[in-house]
Amino acid sequence: MEPTIHPGPRDTSVLTLQAEHRSEDVWGGGMDRLLTCREHVLGLGEWVIHDRVLEFVRLAGFYGVHRLVGGGLALDRSLITALIERWRQETHTFHLAVGEATITLQDVAVLLGLRVHGAPVTGDGTGVWSALVEELLGIRPEPGDDGKPVLQGSSLRMTWLRRHFSQGPPDDAADIVYESSSTCH
């Protein structure tokens, strides 16, 4: 005899958005398709970081992120769809057959190889983003050739970054040039 898996929460008092949740359609037989996944790393294309710059990316502790973004990560659309069907916005957890699970800061740190010890970096998010980009990267973001803004809130278009920073420093440049380039790549 096969075990019966309950299609929804046993106690609906917490999951107040159940009626609008994708799982209602799935369990009702109305939805059996994969979701469309957007990949925001497409703007990187074949952007290769120079080996000498990559050394400083490693020293800065961002090599795991580089591998994730620059390594041609293949998305498992079926897995993403399954996780979305089980994600609960009300509790910020996944409801699985074995119980509830969530993603912790430690999970992200392990997967990306990022350090999460020390004081948190906080702020109110109301800074002048174009001035910060100019301070950190040495160039102020201007509107793109297509007229679309390069900077929207705190989001910077990858195509702009690629246009301005895809060429690494010359091979005979001093290490200090490569070290400063690692903040741009």
UniProtKB/TrEMBL annotation:
- Please give the InterPro entries that the UniProt record associates with this protein: AminoTfrase-like_pln_mobile (IPR019557), MAIN-like (IPR044824)
Domain Aminotransferase-like plant mobile span(s) in chain numbering? 61-168
Origin: domain of life: Eukaryota
Q: What's a Pfam family in this record?
A: PMD
- Its recorded name reads Serine/threonine-protein phosphatase 7 long form homolog
Per the UniProt record, the source organism is Spinacia oleracea (Spinach)
